[in-house]
Amino acid sequence: MGKKTWFVILAVLVIIVGGVTYAKASKRASTNTITIGSVTSDADIWRHLAKSDAAKRLKLNIKVKEFTDGLTLNKATAEGQVDVNAFQSYSYFQAFNQDSKDGKLVAIGTTYLEPLGIYSGKYKSVKDIPDGATIAIAKDQADEARGLKLLADAGLIKIASNFGALDGLEKVTSNPHHFKFKEIDDTTGGRLLNDNGVDAVLISNSVSQAAGLNVLKDAIYYEHINNHTRANVNILATAAKNKGNKTYQKLLTLYRDKASQKYITDKYHGTKTEVVKPLSYFKGVK
C-alpha cells in the first residue's frame, strides 16, 4: 500500500475510536451515574430516591451500596470506591478527617437532623429527674459527646466551653444533681427504659424507632435545630478531590425535592428533620 492509503486508514481508525470514546463519555455524562454509600435507613431512602421522578428529571442514575459501619464507608469514599456517602453527622465527618490516614472528605451539603432524645420510663419531664439519678449514655466517643451536649442543653449539667465532638465525661464542669452516668452500647438503649437501675437513658433516633418509639412524642427532651446542634446535622460527603462537583450537588436538589421530603416525612414520622443550610453554617463547629 502507498503512504496515502495508510494515512487514510489511520485517519478512519482515529475517527472511529474517537467516536466510540465520545459516545461512551456522552452516555456517562447524560446519565450522571453516582454510587452512593449508605447504612440502614439512609440506604433505604436513597434506594427510593434513585427510582423517583425527580431523579429522572435531574438525569441522575444512582446506585446504592450499603455498608454495615461508618468508618469503612468513609474510607471507601476517601479511596474512590464510593462517590458520595449519606449517613453521617458533621461531627462524625470532622472526627474522621481528624484521624484519617486514608484521605480526607469534604461536605457537599446538609440533609437532616435526626434528634437524639432523653427517655425515661419513670419521669415525664427532665425537671422530675431526682438528684443522684442514674442516666445511661452511649459509650461511643461521638455519641457520648452528643449526649452530654444534650444534657447540658436541657440544663441538667454544664460542660467546658471548649467541649469538642469527641470529648466525654472528663469535660463535665458541673454536675449539681450528682447524676451517676452508666455508659452503654447505644443499641441497648431501648431495653433500659424499664430497667429499675436506670432513671433516664439517651437513645439515638434509629435505635428508638427500632424500639417502637417516636422521639418527637416519647422523649422527655430532644434535640432541636439550633446553634448547639449544628455538629449533629447530617451531610452528604465525598472525597476531597471531588470538591465542587456540580453533578454531586444535584443530589441535594433531589433530596430537597417536595416529593422526596414527603416520602421521608411519612416513612419516618417526621423524625428526620430537613435542614437546608449553607456549609458556612458549620463555621466554628468543634
TrEMBL record:
Q: Which UniProt keywords apply?
A: Lipoprotein, Membrane, Palmitate, Signal
For whether the record's keyword set contains Lipoprotein, the answer is yes
Major location (coarse): membrane
Q: A single GO CC term, please? A: membrane
Subcellular location per UniProt equals: Membrane
Membrane topology of the entry: Lipid-anchor
Protein known as: ABC transporter substrate-binding protein
- According to the lineage, what is the superkingdom? Bacteria
